[in-house]
Amino acid sequence: MSVARSRIFDLMKVQCRIFSATFNPDRIRTGNKVLRERLKGPSVAAYYPRRVATFKDLQKLYPDLETWDDDEEDRLEHLGLYEPIRPTSQLSN
Question: Is the Cβ–Cβ distance between 22 and 32 less than 8 Å?
Fold first, then answer.
């Protein structure tokens, strides 16, 4: 004696509802396994130390204090070496 296919599907639906599973009779890849996993972001973020104050933060906090940022000075010097490119219409003036 064989059981009707519709009865087996009904049983599977009830079973999935009871055990909080997804009813997927066609076995389509839905990604539910991955979505049920714990998120990894908080544990990865906790692995790295918290960011401490940067040089720019200190400059904003104490604007009266004379500070020297070598990287920023090098960048500005590098930008100053190149003259801005002017269109040819301005060269004749």
Answer: yes
